[in-house]
């Protein structure tokens, strides 16, 4: 069983189990002989609770593009340029200790790509990368994106050796891979 299938099964089981309690409470409320306004108010309250739970779990399992744009800032140290467009993305679900990995393939304009590459090459904060391979990285690299040659750099972070910030440059496609490992 691959990682994506496992992730979908866990998401479904989690959503199913979390959704049962409000449904049971709604059933109990409907069968009680309470005033109609009270019944409807409680049903609306429980339904909104259930929708917010579904939304929270969904966002945790499938982060939006804004999450990956924020990871760009975390890895590089500067905000993403307006031309940044997330093409492919993958993230692991945080464990009990908050450890997770995220990878995104981001398309930049020619000017932004060249500027970023020059800044990273001149920066003393980035050096040669000793890459850590994870399932999330494989999700992006194994896709049919024509990814052939990647130049990897790692951001030096002396204070937090359990965090790794990688950037990969795809010169032909004018794309970058933003890879964050927190373990």
Detail the poorly predicted runs.
Answer: none
Instruction: Sketch the topology as an H/E string, one letter per element.
Output: HHHEEHEHEEE
Number of domains: 2
Instruction: Kindly state the percentage of residues in helix.
Output: 40-55%
Main sheet strand line-up = 1-2-6-5-4-3
Overall shape: it is elongated
**Into which percentage range does the β-strand content fall?**
15-25%
Mean pLDDT: 81
Number of helices: 5
State the major sheet: 6 strands, antiparallel
Radius of gyration (Å): 22 Å
Structural class: alpha+beta
Question: Care to count the β-strands?
Answer: 6
Ends: how far apart?
Answer: 24 Å
Characterization of the model:
The chain crosses the membrane at residues 6-30, 42-62. Keywords: Membrane, Transmembrane, Transmembrane helix. The chain is elongated, with a radius of gyration of 22 Å. It has a six-stranded antiparallel beta sheet with strand order 1-2-6-5-4-3, sandwiched between helices. The chain folds into two domains: 3-61; 65-182, no CATH class. Strand 4 (151-155) and strand 5 (163-170) form a beta hairpin. It has helices spanning 3-31, 36-61, 65-76, 110-122, 135-141; strands at 85-91, 100-107, 126-128, 151-155, 163-170, 175-182. It is an alpha+beta fold.
């Amino acid at each position: 069983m691959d990682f994506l299938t496992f992730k979908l099964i866990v998401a479904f089981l989690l959503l199913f189990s979390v959704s049962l309690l409000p449904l049971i409470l709604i059933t109990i409320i409907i069968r009680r002989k309470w005033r109609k306004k009270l019944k409807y108010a409680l049903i609306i309250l429980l339904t909104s609770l259930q929708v917010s739970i579904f939304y929270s779990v969904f966002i945790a399992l499938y982060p939006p593009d804004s999450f990956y744009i924020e990871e760009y800032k975390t890895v590089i140290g500067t905000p993403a340029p307006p031309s940044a467009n997330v093409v492919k993305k993958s993230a692991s679900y945080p464990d009990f200790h908050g450890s997770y990995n995220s990878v995104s393939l981001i398309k930049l304009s020619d000017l932004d790509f060249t500027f970023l590459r020059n800044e990273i090459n001149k920066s003393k904060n980035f050096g040669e990368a000793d890459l850590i391979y994870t399932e999330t990285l494989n999700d992006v690299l194994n896709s049919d994106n024509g990814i052939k040659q990647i130049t990897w750099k790692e951001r030096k972070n002396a204070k937090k050796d359990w965090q790794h910030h990688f950037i990969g440059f795809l010169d032909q496609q004018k794309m970058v891979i933003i890879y964050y490992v927190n373990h």
